């Protein structure tokens, strides 16, 4: 994922209305633009501007069938951002967990050796 496209995702998600709009589309896959407009207390033009931002950030997929525009959420950009940070932390914490496991096993062996010596 390019830095520019990541910026677009963060910019799109920075707005509360757009996050709520994405939540609605996630809960109602294939919904129409007119359905979204009914759910939000803003003008159709404002909804269309928010949808355009989400589409440019690749968070929203539209399927135009005749005059209707069906909306679907695209979770891939969010998943890529999530994986970027969590995979680094996962590797870090996996290494630390191995260290803790090694120390715990070493202490157990030492305590068993002391018990046998008594």
TrEMBL record:
One MF term in the entry's GO annotations: DNA-binding transcription factor activity
InterPro entries assigned to the protein according to its UniProt record, in alphabetical order: ArsR-like_HTH, HTH_ArsR_DNA-bd_dom, WH-like_DNA-bd_sf, WH_DNA-bd_sf
UniProt domain HTH arsR-type: residue ranges: 1-93
Protein name stated in the entry: HTH arsR-type domain-containing protein
Source species: Planctobacterium marinum
């Amino acid at each position: 994922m390019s830095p520019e496209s990541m910026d677009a995702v963060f910019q799109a998600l920075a707005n509360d209305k757009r996050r709520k709009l994405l939540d609605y589309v996630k809960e109602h896959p294939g919904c129409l633009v007119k359905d979204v407009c009914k759910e939000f207390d803003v003008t159709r033009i404002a909804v269309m501007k928010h949808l355009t931002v989400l589409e440019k950030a690749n968070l929203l997929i539209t399927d135009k069938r005749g005059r209707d525009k069906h909306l679907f959420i695209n979770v891939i950009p969010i998943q890529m951002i999530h994986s970027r940070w969590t995979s680094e932390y996962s590797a870090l914490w996996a290494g630390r967990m191995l260290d803790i496991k090694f120390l715990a096993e070493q202490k157990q062996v030492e305590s068993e050796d002391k018990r046998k010596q008594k």
